Amino acid sequence: HNGGPGAVGSGRGGGNLSVFTWEEVQKHSHKGDQWLVIDRKVYNVTQWVKRHPGGIRVISHYAGEDATEAFTAFHPNLTFPRKFLKSLLIGELADTEPSQEAGKNAVVVQDFQALRERVEKEGLLRAKPLFFSLYLGHILLLEALSLGLLWHWGTSWSVTLLCSVILATSQSQAGWLQHDFGHLSVFKKSSWNHILHKFIIGHIKGASANWWNHRHFQHHAKPNVFCKDPDVNMLHLFVLGDSQPVEYGIKKLKYMPYNHQHKYFFLIGPPLLIPLYFQIEIMRTMVTRRDWVDLAWSMTFYLRYFCCYYPFFGFFGCIVFFTFVRFLESHWFVWVTQMSHLPMDIDHEKHHDWLTMQLNATCNIEQSPFNDWFSGHLNFQIEHHLFPTMPRHNYQAVAPLVQALCEKHHIPYQVKTLQGAFADIISSLKKSGDLWLDAYLHK
């Protein structure tokens, strides 16, 4: 593959490597024609995206861009993905070109790179197996406790309600634990992380590892960026941020009465996300992608669940009980996952550097033993977003270093109380709804 019209002279020292300007690289950012830059080397990933283990979309979101920081953040062992890069190399940036495209702050990039090197040197990317073993233990204990109570006390309303709360707790905590394995943050060997991830999300939760990875990595690659982060694709049910409501208002789009979205959020947000939307989407994804491995894993969950609870509730009762557990879990999941992102900056692609992009889209919640447990350490969402492969028990150690770096570059680092963060979800929905109404009526 030659450089085409954008090649500016011949490569030096690297054989016949073509040399490119940023202007040329940025032209290749469309479906069917995708280049990206890693460490000043230019790669044509057009064909490779379909084979990318993290999914097609996550890598496509960086087409035409410098992807060095994302590449480093997502892959725990860089020598492995670099093997695949060799065959995709088509050239390098011209000497006169900066290492990042305009809009990315080179000093911030260098300082964050230095912080990352320090984090690696201090062993903050190494996991404590005991922490994760005990964590899995407390989940299995809760699952067993629920069965034990029914077996011992019978299926009265009060016992059934207690068991559903216990199961919702174990399911929520299993959700935080599968997140650790999905990010490859527990074992050195990726394959071990993948196997345990399939066990926890498949057998303990009845969901799909590939569905979660392909969705969640996009969120990490471009948090709160419309058309790239699936978590801000609200299917016209809500309008988010400051720009989308105005766009909808000017176009006179009224799929829902958005000025009331802070009220109907309570009806269709927390109660329905997991039992309705995720339940359908997960099953549909596994079948349409013909992901029989994940389907088999999730079937072991349903098999175990019905074997355990059928004797107590019968078939129909089992479905009602299961749906109620998912309904409770869904509230927990939605409030915790939205509190760090929904009140933050939500907009179209701005091509910021990694640190700036993640801090604009993310805030933290105060540290306390309860908050750590309740949120699966996602109260340190900033640290998690900057270092997605870092084991969660190390977030607290790296937080002061991140804070100092943000102060140096005048990047806001927000820490809220748990109640304050929950309240901000509603106030940001109200603010966006009001912006929509104003634009709808007057613009």
From TrEMBL:
Residues 17-94 form the Cytochrome b5 heme-binding domain. GO terms for biological process: unsaturated fatty acid biosynthetic process. Pathway: Lipid metabolism; polyunsaturated fatty acid biosynthesis. One of its GO terms (cellular component) is membrane. This is Cytochrome b5 heme-binding domain-containing protein. It is a multi-pass membrane protein. One of its GO terms (molecular function) is oxidoreductase activity, acting on paired donors, with oxidation of a pair of donors resulting in the reduction of molecular oxygen to two molecules of water. It comes from the Eukaryota. InterPro entries: Cyt_B5-like_heme/steroid-bd, Cyt_B5-like_heme/steroid_sf, FA_desaturase_dom, Fatty_acid_desaturase. It comes from Esox lucius. The chain crosses the membrane at residues 130-151, 264-282, 302-325. Keywords: Fatty acid biosynthesis, Fatty acid metabolism, Lipid biosynthesis, Lipid metabolism, Membrane, Oxidoreductase, Transmembrane, Transmembrane helix. SMART domains: Cyt-b5. Belongs to the fatty acid desaturase type 1 family. It is found in: Membrane. Its main location: membrane.
